[in-house]
Amino acid sequence: QVQLVESGGRLVQAGGSLRLSCAASGRAFSTYNMGWFRQAPGKEREFVTSISWSGGGTYYGDSVAGRFTISRDNAKNRAYLQMNSLKPEDTAVYYCAARRKDRRDSAYFTDNYDYWGQGTQVTVSS
Question: Integer distance in angstroms from the first to the last C-alpha of the chain?
Fold first, then answer.
């Protein structure tokens, strides 16, 4: 069992930056690949980015590539999402999620994650 708690979401102006944090507790954090998803009102939950258990592999959704950066610190049991050049369309609830590192299915789909946090609200004003 893994518990995930996101933090860092808040109101920010367009063009600004924000760093989200995901704190993990429970089973060994380094045995999980991590992902960030977001969900805007009335929309489906959307893949943002993922990182392998070692931090050696990262993937980004097209809408955030070049602006967002995912990272992790296994010693601190934390994953991070650095968001730069924020746009109003980035407004959403952001969720971190964990999937066992031995899974071979795609990291892009919500069904392929084993644990989820409760989410943190990010609002970008124009």
Answer: 40
pLDDT at 16 over 90: yes
Query: How does DSSP assign the chain, residue by residue?
Result: -EEEEEE---EEETT--EEEEEEEEES-GGGEEEEEEEE-TTS--EEEEEE-TTS--EEE-TTTTTTEEEEEETTTTEEEEEE-S--GGG-EEEEEEEEETT--S-TTSGGG-SEE---EEEEEE-
Q: What are the two backbone dihedrals, phi and then psi, of residue 60, each rounded to the nearest 5 degrees?
A: -135, 145
The string of pLDDT tens digits covering residues 44-71 is 999 999 999 999 899 999 999 999 999 9
The pLDDT of residue 13: 98
Query: Interior CA angle at 26 toward 25 and 29, to 5°?
Result: 70
% of the chain with per-residue pLDDT over 70? 100
27 vs 2: CA distance, rounded Å:
6
- Residue 20: the pLDDT is 98
